[in-house]
UniProtKB/TrEMBL annotation:
Name by which UniProt lists this protein: G-alpha-domain-containing protein
Binding site for GTP: 377-380, 438
Lineage: Eukaryota, Fungi, Dikarya, Basidiomycota, Agaricomycotina
Pfam family, one: G-alpha
Chain residue ranges for the region called Disordered: 194-222
Amino acid sequence: MKAKDKVKVASFPSANPFTTKWSGAPPNETEEEAQVRVKLMQEAVRVSKEIDQSLNEARKAIEKKKKAFKVLLLGQSESGKSSVLKNFQLAFAPKHFEEERAIWKIIVQLNLIASIRTILDALKDEYETPSVPQPTPTESSLRGPAHNLRRIRLGFSPLFFIETNLIKILSPDISDPRELCVRAGSGWKELLGHRGKRAADGQESNDRPRSQTVINNENDPTNVLSAQKGDIIALWEDQTVQDILRKRGIRLEDQSGFFMNDVARIATPEYQPTDSDIIRARIRTVGVEEHHFLVERGVDANSDFYITDVGGTRSQRASWVPYFDDVQAILFLAPLAFNQSLEEDSRVNRLEDSLTLWRDICGNKLLATANLILFFNKKDVLNATLAAGVSVKKFVPSYGNLPNDVPHVTKYFKEKFRNYHRKMSPMARPFMCYETSAIDITSMAVLLMGVRESILRQHLRDGDII
């Protein structure tokens, strides 16, 4: 063989690359560089393990949620969904309910201040007409109602100052106290729930920096309400005030968060909200809010409950559909408020809107297998409305000459909802309807026991257990 025909044989290192452990060390690496490289590798391993652990936890949470009871609260804004949710917590998770008592104390106090503001605004509209030029003050005018109103407003100014501070905490973007609302998931409960804990010597200790302290003496309304208790009671019991409210069609008693009849009890330094106070307290929420709690008693103790409140205003309803998937039950709240209109559109009757919404829910194919449970909520308001002589026929002409009493009115509208349920449901399912008053804790507890059993049976049926 000639030299040019000789084949060069590649030379390989003596070490076998398939059996030699790779260290990742580059050639000519210094000791300092090796230490840096090892630290980076250790950090990468730690992060990788954390990611794996996080993924495993997320996977377990998803599997756990699949096995949980999932309930969707639907209905218009102001239909009582929040009250029903609080009744659920009180009935099945009382410890969770108790933990939030201090939070709801502040909301009750804000509701009371809002009612005072509403009264003073009505008096202002009555006595101070912007289009009429104000005359030069005289001795008699200084004793008149307009001057007296200004004196009253000045007396309540410390309360309104505290109200403004609390609103800045809860909803910084809101400038008008009458439009107070909190965004779901904003952590507003954590803000109000943060209080300085009492140390052994009675002084307040706080783990958070002073600048982050949310509730303190400057924005706690307890002492100011206590000091002005007599003035608040006098304002509410004044016959002239009642006449003006009646003249302007303002019925505070029918509104959520009404506590003016409880001032003597609430405006005290020792006040702690009762269960009923918490159920009745009102703060408007915007957005979808999911509430998770463990059932603490009963045959299904330690089981998970997920109750989702998707909001009820017309602008929020477009976001409902993603939450229809995999729910065991829908609690649909429809107050029989035949004489009221929607807050966001005064041209739309509340009851007609509820019927339209119910028809759409019944016909939705995504909800074909879900339990639909209808609550005719705010039964107490219906009783008061009919007792005041308000005619159903005036607002619902199709009601005709049927008797204007609670049994006939309830039966009439129940049949309307039943017909939509039968005609629009993709498949046959039982029609479940209850007349409720969410502020009646005892009755609601009994009712929710039955609702939970119904959800549990459906849950077991879906799992082929029964």
